[in-house]
Specification:
This protein is an alpha/beta fold. It has 26 helices and 21 strands. Strand 10, helix 11 and strand 11 form a beta-alpha-beta unit. The relative contact order is 0.09.
């Protein structure tokens, strides 16, 4: 086991930091000593450090399981830029490429191997894994293993099988969003030898949580942008609205762009880079945007539509103010939202007969005979499928997700195909590049240094890594490679994301589809409960929004945040609601601890006028009683305190 000094030396050597922050140090020492560990760290808390540092201090390789291909690629590129050998296996690789990569892992060629949870079930991967020297397994987004989590993914359940293949290898589970129930379930599903949880407080003292009720959300958005300077993210629920709102903002003089999963990879990268560099102030996006972004100075995150869960909202709002400076998380609410929210349930969980019909149409779509199909993989266009059969897009997409949970198919909405490159000119002909622009020459030198076999066949390339090393944007790299292809020097296939349908079982009659409660009824009930919690957060007019969020994740906060819209609102006493609640809370705490005279209460760090004002209010509400000059709590407040 490495010492704390050795961990800090690795941190300094590779990341340039002198010390760890939050609970990073405790998590690293725990997993480094071989203990199964669960780390709860809010968005931007530095989760990757907690497995990268201890893995570098040990012999062997770290397996990192994550469902996010974009994040997977970013972390691999970042590690390689630091001189650390890392690789990723995703759907874009050919079988022979996966075999070669896994063989390299067996012979110690990599320190980190990133894989998707879907990859874990393959016989090829499991067979090779047995031969690898693995030091630890890191499970990112570990809430996905829990059926009680807001983003349950059945593929995560395969991790327990991986543990059987790697006896004695510790697991580090990481998540930014988990309720107490989910925390217990994660440890149970991952087979923790004993409960072992490290929590970083979810409280964001620099983030102001605000709900605005308005009849005109665009008008309110413009008003907020006019009052809060700096970079902003605006979240909406559908792709069409991203473009509409971005255009409205631009017309109003606010430089904006939009982002959603339907854009080509290069275009998404270009727009994100524009926003990151400050070329545009606002990015209007669906929830496809955000994972892995590294922009600390976001001053404003606005949700035009209410998210489906407190977990999703907390994670998205938490992308504001990562630099520790003041930032605002604003959720816009209008009278018509209640009807929209109720419709989400029917869209997310369509009737069983509708799901059966989608399954049957899918079989017709691929001309699948009864009893055939198991193991077949097809590219899939959701929009074309819906157009052909005149079906509503959102319920169909959710029907496919339910069929996936039921185990009949697997709907992969963003299978990632890596960019490929092959040289068609000879090495001698490459000297022609000396006459072209310097960027092209630089790119070719970097490509030849990073990859071998380019003159024999197509080779998968990492466009972000090449662009980073060349000091150019991803869009500029795309232009260069297309230009070289026109010159007859290379053949270039850009990366792309293509939805896929994988038939997990042979086709059966739609009438005999088995609706497991875990895949349908239970999930629908959980969805309703999460939506109800989110609705309560939006509609509540009393309390403190920060305390509401913390309580949802099982964390107690005794003082009001003094920053949210409720805390900032005026109380009938003349002070802010937050100040009134804070003084009231201190009075209750003192009396519960045994104090009983007004002199003790006046020792609180507030003006006598404010303390007396709160005392009068509490006496009027019969929360306090006076007996012979002594102050005592009402029975209701005593039970509330308990």
């Amino acid at each position: 086991m490495a010492t704390l000094a050795e961990y800090r030396e690795i941190l300094k050597q590779y990341w340039g930091y002198d010390s760890f922050r939050g609970v990073q140090e405790e998590i690293i020492c725990s997993i480094g000593s071989g203990k199964d560990t669960l780390g709860l760290m809010p968005t931007g808390g530095g989760k990757s450090i907690t497995f990268q540092v201890p893995a570098l201090a040990q012999d062997g390789m770290c397996i990192v399981i994550t469902p996010l291909v974009a994040l997977m690629k970013d972390q691999v590129a970042n590690l390689r830029n630091r001189g650390i050998r890392a690789a990723a296996i995703h759907a874009g690789l050919k079988r022979e490429e996966v075999v070669l990569l896994l063989e390299d892992c067996i012979f110690g060629g990599y320190k980190f191997l990133y894989v998707s949870p879907e990859r874990l079930a393959s016989e090829l991967f499991q067979g090779k894994l047995k031969k690898m020297k693995v030091s630890m397994v890191a499970v990112d987004e570990s809430h996905c293993i829990s059926q009680w989590g807001y983003d349950f993914r059945p593929a995560y359940l395969e991790i327990s099988r991986i543990r059987e293949l790697l006896p004695g290898v510790p697991v580090l589970a990481l998540t930014a969003t988990a309720t107490p129930r989910v925390v217990d379930d994660i440890q149970d599903k991952l087979g923790f030898r004993e409960k072992n949880v490290f929590r970083m407080s979810f409280e964001r003292s620099n983030l102001w949580y605000i709900v605005r009720n308005t009849d005109n959300k665009t008008e309110e958005l413009l008003r907020i942008l006019g009052k809060v300077p700096g970079s902003a993210i605006v979240y909406v629920r559908n792709r069409r609205r991203t473009k509409e709102i971005a255009e409205e903002l631009t017309q109003a003089g606010v430089a904006s762009t939009f982002y959603h999963a339907g854009l080509e990879t290069e275009e998404k990268d270009r727009r994100q880079q524009m926003w990151t560099d400050g070329a545009v102030r606002v990015i209007v996006a669906t929830n496809a945007f955000g994972m892995g972004i590294d922009k600390p100075d976001v001053r404003l995150v606005v949700h035009i539509d209410m998210p489906d869960s407190v977990e999703a909202y907390f994670q998205e709002a938490g992308r504001g103010g990562r630099d520790g400076q003041t930032a605002y998380a604003v959720l816009l609410n209008s009278p018509g939202d209640k009807r929209i929210v109720s419709k989400r349930l029917t869209d997310s969980f369509p009737e069983k007969d509708f799901i059966r019909m989608v399954y049957e149409k899918l079989a017709y779509y691929y001309q699948m005979a009864m009893g055939d199909g198991q193991g077949c993989v097809y590219e899939f266009s959701l929009s074309q499928f819906c157009q052909r059969y005149s079906l509503p897009l959102l319920p169909v997409e959710n029907a496919l997700r339910i069929l996936t949970r039921m185990g009949y198919i697997e709907y992969v909405d963003e299978a990632d195909y890596s960019a490929r490159l092959k040289f068609v000119s000879s090495k001698e002909e490459l000297y022609r590049l000396r006459e072209s622009d310097s960027d092209s020459e630089s790119v070719m030198r970097i490509v030849l240094r990073l990859y071998s076999g380019l003159f024999a066949d197509y080779v998968n390339i990492d466009e972000k890594l090449i662009a980073t090393k060349a000091g150019i944007t991803a869009h500029r790299l795309y232009e260069i490679l297309i230009g070289l292809q026109r010159m007859g020097i290379v053949l270039y296939v850009p990366s792309k994301r293509t939805p896929m349908i994988i038939w997990k079982r042979a086709r059966v009659e739609a009438e005999v589809l088995r609706f497991d409660p875990e895949a349908y009824e239970n999930r629908m009930k959980e969805f309703q409960e999460r939506m109800q919690a989110m609705t309560e957060y939006v509609t509540r007019q009393a309390g403190c929004r920060s305390q509401m969020l913390l309580a949802y994740f099982g964390e107690k906060s005794h003082d009001s945040c003094m920053r949210c819209d409720i805390c900032q609102s005026s109380h009938e006493s003349g002070m802010s609601t937050g100040m009134f609640r804070q003084i009231r809370g201190r009075i209750v705490a003192l009396l519960s601890a045994g104090a009983s005279d007004s002199l003790s209460l006046c020792s609180l760090p507030y003006s006598r006028e404010r303390i007396n004002s709160v005392l009068r209010s509490m006496l009027d509400e019969e929360e306090l009683f006076m007996d012979d000059g002594k102050v005592r709590l009402s029975e209701n407040l005593k039970s509330e305190k308990e």
